[in-house]
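Weekly structure sync, notes
Attendees: PL (lead), two postdocs, one rotation student
Agenda item 3: pending single-chain targets
PL asked that the sequence for the first pending target be pasted directly into the notes so everyone works from the same version. It is reproduced below exactly as submitted, 600 residues in total.
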Amino acid sequence: MKNKKTINLDAHLFIEILDTAQVAYSLSHILTGAQRWSETFYRILGLSPEKTLPSTDLLLSTVHPEDRAHLLSARQEAIADQNHYEIEFRMIQKNGQECLLKAQGTVCSDQTGQKACLIEILQAHTENPLDKKNNDTLKEEVENSAYKDPLTGLPNRQLFYDRLEQTIQHVKRNHTICALLYIDLDNFKTINDTRGHWVGDLYLQEIARRLKECARAGDTVSRLGGDEFALILETLTEEKEAAIVAERIVKLISIPFYHLDESIYASVSIGISVCPRNGTSSESLLKNADVAMYHAKKTGKNRFHFFTKTLNEKIIKQAAIETALRKSMKRKELETYFQPIISLKDHQIISMEALIRWPQADGTFIPPDEFIPLAEKRGLISDIDKFMIHKACGFVQEIISNTSNTLAQKTHVSVNLSSVDFERIDLCKHLLDVVQWFGLEPHHIGIEITETMLIKNMKLAIEHLSVLREQGFSVSIDDFGTGYSSLNYLAQLPIDILKMDGSFVLDLPDNRRNSAIAKAIVLMAHEMGIQVIAEGVETEAQLDFLRDIDCDQIQGHIFSPALPRNKMENLLTQAAPFIETGVAVLTSSDTSYKSSNQLK
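Predicted structure, written out during the meeting:
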């Protein structure tokens, strides 16, 4: 028994050694029939673990039909006599070629002495006349694995860079032009999430096939990784040839992909850089094509865009703004301004909106519409939102603590939240914690969101807004009328206020179209029990019109621009009607805060 136990332990140690040495072997349990194969075993047979049925005898299924009886006989004798065997046989490889192999089989027992498993080691015969051919095949497979994408068979990133560098050198020598198309699938994540990664892989393979169909002879189609592809167009006569190919790709990819009688739709965004005009190195061409691709995505997707001088200048400017913004945030140079909102019923300041300001050394401001979208894209918006919420709460706390007048005690400040905030599961708890930390109640703080943000995830937005409103926060839809939201969704939204976008107020009352829209917004909102704030009010004619259509509240430069903290505090403590005869109560010094950038 001792010897049999030792044999069993030696077998386990043997398996570990074989795994470490990457030897091809199979392990078959005699009683259960269960089998296990090493990764090297799969590779030699040219098979995939994912596409092999567990019940398949891999080795026997690939043995030449004339040699199978020989292998089966050797196995049966070894199991019956519990001995070792060595035999030679021919194997049919996946490519149809024959290969002469040697199998060494050993039967091992368990601790009770029962026959437990058969271990078979597979190796090429040392005198195999096909060895040279097999070695050439193996060399080719190694080269393919190093330079080809395993899923699509396209050149991978490494081979892509090599081909691109060769193309660039050809352009320099022959004074021609070439183009690089950077191709990214739109919303591919949705396919993976809804149909599964297996279907996603099938779709990527189909995309690769379609891209090759669009390419010309001599061009290189590569998969750079994920859902990103590239196409090198060699020796172009003129740049519009690249546009023709890109347009062909957009159209072909738009054709639905059918899987199990189900249509799957996708599109691509393509950025194009041209050598030598957009760069003479692989890095510059790829970077510029990538920039152009993102511009194509931003402007609607399912399209292509060339890299241009204007686009390059825009990217350089954005990079400079991002660097400066990060420094300003680190130095705490951003400021919070407050713009009053006036009730048209009693002419009092009914609330304020907290607005971010980025002052410059020369006394000007960088407009929020230049740096807020960039902050969202670069992951800085959460820190800005946190900064604004804390500043708003701190301002309300100071007003309530230092002032006894009734108007000040009812101080209410609204803060804009980004779509990033609404992705937080604990959004409501987070806001409650901040408000309570400052010793305030939720009714002191209002939440403003845009229609565009709502559309991104309407269901989640409704859930968050419902909870926030139940806790006592007021909820406003900012820039209403610009986001193309469905009225059906509007009816479901738990909101208190619609803020009519300033673009509809601009030409009132002379613009008949805007007048009709303004009237419709007010009427619709009132029928739903929602109040309306008109933004961007600048003239008495606009004010009179809005008063006549029963608009509830007004926000705009006719009353006051956004003011720094101390100016807003002084305005609040006046405790007097803000409008006497339709003219804003602003001193000449106050008007200095009006922004030449037309900020709120």
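Discussion points:
- The chain has 22 helices and 20 strands.
- The CA atoms of residues 408 and 572 lie 6 Å apart.
Action: rotation student to compare against the earlier draft before next sync.
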